[in-house]
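Exercise 7.
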Amino acid sequence: MTQGESSTAVADDTITISPGPRFRAAMVLAILADALQIVVFPLFVEGALSPVDDILDFGIAAVLVHLLGWHWEFLPAFVAELVPGVDLVPFWTMAVANVYRKSKPIAVAEDESRSKHPALRDPQHF
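Solution. The predicted structure, written as tokens, is:
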């Protein structure tokens, strides 16, 4: 081992949601799904009792979980979207925004703890 190498490896196993492409895709998808359910579906389909509306909700839930991982905020949004008439509230958009809002303090706290506790050096090679 050379002087610059260390025998210990530090693994970074934390998962945070950043405003990167996955979050942007989830937010755009949630907004589009809510817009479809509020504006388009009541005009052309049976409205809230439409099986197309329910299929959209199942698909949106699956894609959001794939993009952002499982979050408890998706469960009430999914249940509310299946209730006739209640799906006129943009629950998918609110759920994705809430997931991002809750992930920001976690990411900030992790960044602060990393700056306060720099990586340990090998005590033999000071």
